[in-house]
Design a protein that fits this description.
Blueprint (H helix, E strand, L loop, with lengths): L1 H13 L5 H25 L1 E3 L3 E7 L6 E8 L3 E9 L3 H23 L7 E12 L3 E11 L6 E10 L8 H5 L3 H22 L6 H7 L9 E4 L2 E6 L12 E6 L10 H6 L5 E2 L19 E10 L4 H10 L5 E4 L8 H9 L3 E4 L12 H19 L5 E2 L8 H9 L3 E3 L3 E2 L2 H4 L2 H11 L5 E5 L3 H16 L2 E3 L2 H5 L8 E2 L5
Parallel strand pairs: 4-5, 11-20, 12-13, 12-18, 12-19, 13-14, 15-16, 16-20, 17-18
Antiparallel strand pairs: 1-2, 2-3, 3-4, 5-6, 6-7, 8-9, 9-10
Bound molecules: zinc ion (ZN).
């Protein structure tokens, strides 16, 4: 029994009276260790269902933290990163979508067996962070070992005070119908451009059926000059192309964004009626303070359709305004002379229809001056009204207009005639939206638009409208450096 004896001797030595303090110390140290470990674990992680854990992570934003929920089992490897902001409603809205992704993952996992765990990764990206607004994008990637992981995205721009996600209607206010229709046209144009660069994978018929004006609810506002829409992989193009991102400059949407929400998110210039009182153009010209005046404006000419349009205006005793592209004038000098002689206003629509917001101030000035000089040479009048091509404006363009003493004219009745090219639609849009003081945008390069004019004039004249030029509506050059879209009536 030597072993037993040695064992007993060791035990006896350990518990001998002179070793008791060491023993107690060891026990105390283990006790403290257990307590500290428990506290630390409770602070940093929580255990649910035996395998789900969460922890917190700071972000670069002092007021947003991430709650990260992970699961690791033989069939599941999952990480979900929830943003936790200072507003509970924002957190709930986002968590609801991440949870929906998670339920769909769990439903798949519970009905399929696997040796290699199925994977889920869901997280978020702060696209814009201001005191008042938060643009957030969430995305999930679920790998079921089919080759291509399934991906989905969702996004919002939240009002941080109310916690409500904003819609395009909040941005556009009373102009939501026209604003959203424009957004849809621009998004589809951009997708068509992208698909031209990647001919394989885009489903343009899907784009056309999915992207109606009703499709647009939420949006991202990455900067104070851009709007962004993301499409989940597979939504409008082959999933292998990934998320399709469409970023739109707001330079040509400012007309529709005259709300306080839009001003909070973007750099928006005021567009509306001129502040200064109307100056009568000539003694004897119509008094738009008394009459129901309306201004038809025609862009992009002169063209082969313009002469017939002048005949129609004359036959109906109507005046209008023409925003000419400088480089088109030399081909139709007599038409430009007629426009002036027959009492219409001639305005400037740049030399070559460049988007002026992409030019520097010297280049913008050249576009305007060349065109003004060409009109002066041809018709003997110098324009004071300018319509920026595509309605695209920014502070730099407008300050150049101001230096050149030009009044910018946008519009209040948006026919979108260039997109639809349908005489009935154009007629209906004008008649349905006409108000005293309206400025209507049309294009005399499209036969479909010119063909609508006679009916438009006859119907609205019966309703008591007088068709006037911009000079007659406002007087010459009412608001240099300002942007007007209608009369103050
Ligand atoms: Zn144009």
């Amino acid at each position: 029994m030597p072993f037993r004896t040695r064992w007993h001797r060791t035990l006896a030595r350990f518990f001998s009276p002179d070793k008791v303090p060491v023993w107690l110390l060891a026990a105390a140290a283990i006790g403290v260790g257990v307590i500290v470990t428990t506290i630390v674990l409770r602070e940093t992680a929580n255990t649910q269902a035996g395998y789900e854990q969460y922890k917190w992570r700071d972000t670069k934003y002092a007021d947003i933290r991430s709650r990260i929920v992970t699961r690791n089992t033989s069939s599941v490897v999952s990480t979900i990163e929830y943003p936790v902001t200072t507003h509970g409603k924002i957190n709930e809205t986002i968590a609801a979508v991440l949870d929906r992704y998670n339920r769909s993952f769990d439903a798949y996992v519970s009905s399929h067996r696997t040796r290699v765990p199925f994977e889920q990764n869901s997280s978020y990206e702060v696209v814009r962070h201001t005191n008042k607004y938060l643009s957030i994008l969430v995305s999930t990637s679920r790998d079921y070992h089919h080759g291509q992981p399934e991906r989905e995205t969702a996004y919002w721009t939240f009002d941080r005070e109310t916690g409500q996600p904003l819609t395009l209607s909040d941005l556009f206010g009373t102009q939501a119908t026209d604003g959203i229709a424009r957004v849809n046209l621009y998004v589809r144009q951009e997708i068509a451009r992208q698909s031209a660069r990647h001919p394989v994978g885009y489903d343009m018929s899907r784009v056309n059926t999915l992207l109606t004006d009703e499709y647009y609810k939420s949006f991202l506002a990455p900067t104070n000059t851009t709007l962004r829409f993301d499409f989940s992989p597979g939504e409008i193009a082959d999933a292998s192309l990934g998320t399709i991102t469409v970023t739109l400059p707001i330079d040509n949407l400012q007309l529709f964004m005259q709300t306080s929400t839009a001003r909070g998110l973007f750099d928006i210039m005021s567009v509306g009626a001129p502040n200064s009182p109307r100056v009568q153009a000539h003694p004897g010209s119509p008094d738009c303070q008394q009459l129901k005046c309306i201004a038809l404006t025609f862009d992009d000419g002169p063209s082969t359709h313009t002469s017939g349009l002048l005949d129609t205006l004359m036959a109906n005793n109507a005046h209008a305004s023409f925003f000419l592209i400088g480089q088109n004038i030399a081909r139709y000098p007599s038409i430009v002379q007629r426009q002036h002689l027959e009492g219409h206003t001639i305005g400037n629509h740049s030399w070559d229809h460049t988007r002026l917001t992409r030019l520097n101030q010297t280049q913008v000035a050249r576009e305007i001056t060349l065109t003004n000089d060409q009109i002066k040479r041809t018709a003997g009048t110098t324009p004071t009204y300018v319509r920026p091509p595509n309605g695209a404006i920014n502070r730099s363009v407008i300050s150049t207009f101001e230096r050149l003493n030009m009044t910018s004219v946008l519009w209040s009745v948006d026919t979108r005639d260039w997109a639809d090219r349908n005489t009935d639609i154009i007629y209906n849009r004008v008649v349905a939206n006409a108000k005293p003081g309206s400025i209507v945008i049309l294009h005399d390069v499209h036969k479909t638009s010119v063909n609508a004019v006679s009916r438009i004039i006859k119907t609205l004249q019966k309703e008591g409208y007088t068709f006037v030029s911009l000079d007659e509506m406002f007087g010459p050059n009412p608001a240099p450096g300002k942007i007007i879209s209608r009369a103050s009536q």
